[in-house]
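Archive transcription. Copying these from loose printouts into the bound notebook so they stop getting lost. Printout 1 of 2:
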Amino acid sequence: MKKTSAIIIGISSDIGTALCRKWTGNGWQVTGTYRKKTPAMKKLEKEGACFFFCDVAKPASCIAACRKLEKVCRAWDLLVMLPASLKPIGPFSEDRFSDWQNSVELNFINQMLLVHQLLPLRRRGSLLGPCVLFFSAGGINDAPVNYSAYTAAKIATVKMAELLAEEIKDTRFVTIGPGWVKTKIHQETLAAGSKAGANYRRTADKFKKGNFTPMEKILDCCDWIVNQPKSIVSGRNFHVNHDQWGTKKFSGKLAREPHLLKLRKYGSI
């Protein structure tokens, strides 16, 4: 039996590190990219994980990382995309457009570049087929104020997962909304202060009360998705807290309703 092989783009993120720790513990081969090395990565390297530098904000760095990844990971089963930045935070009309554009490139365009480059390396012929996991965010069902670049990029990611699911039949493409997780990304909101609007107080309250999605729940959701067939998960956007993933009833509903958990127009006159 060949080891399950995973590539984690953004392994230095809190979720990336947790996924790597769990999957290497399960005997998987885990390869990943980082922008800044963290102390936790040293232990993961000792456990067999392999890392390469990649600044996802720069296309040339993405291409260089892919060339290194293809030398050590020629047949991946799972590709996880985790890089994210909330910046620029503030009204669209007051943002420098170059900052807004750079955010969309980091949160969407350059991640699609990485997927495009790495897709030829996916393992073919397995029972469930390879899986690409993207992480989504709020904004699908409402309109977060002062986070337009990040929100637009994440919504584009959700739709792109559905498009890729239809185009590439041998691979599963899934997005996951983790909810509020105690990770480094929220420091961007706290640093933005009044530019974050009402979300500044909401974020500060979350840290004060410690009301976050448990990391273990996110890991369990990822594992459940990875072990589901294309008909159940591909092209869909799951929320860790709001969806009843892991239950037979919910899986049956997904099998019967092809539009469930996908971006659709709401209502009509």
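Printout 2 of 2:
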Amino acid sequence: MEKGTPPPPSTDYKVVDGQVVIPSTAAERKGIQPVVHLSANGKARADVPAGRPVKFTAIIEVPQGTGKIIDARWDVEGDKTFPLVQEIKPSDVLNSGSRVTLTNTHAFSKSGTYFPTLLVTSQRDGDLNTPFARISNLDWVRVVVQ
């Protein structure tokens, strides 16, 4: 216990046939890591012609009492640099920063298979300026461009 604040409950998971299975919501999962659910055109996979925009929607949650979402960065083309920082506006945030819905749109100019990824970060006190107590997680989707 630090400063009278008990630690959050441990992450809840099961091992099924040798695979770790975690609950899909932050409330069920517990722990401290943000939970990210990313979709492309409403699904885990989008098939589109080159040049057609793909709409990405992310639902991000942190377990109760573990912090606020402070940062979201996109790697749409798959270069692992996360160059696009998405502002988290007050209108994006529900439940005092513990749940955020973000959208982004991108059109791929070349055919191929892409794995757009969203990296999100939470911080215990919601402090944007501290490098301490930052916890990150990510999710990705598949986009096949013809």
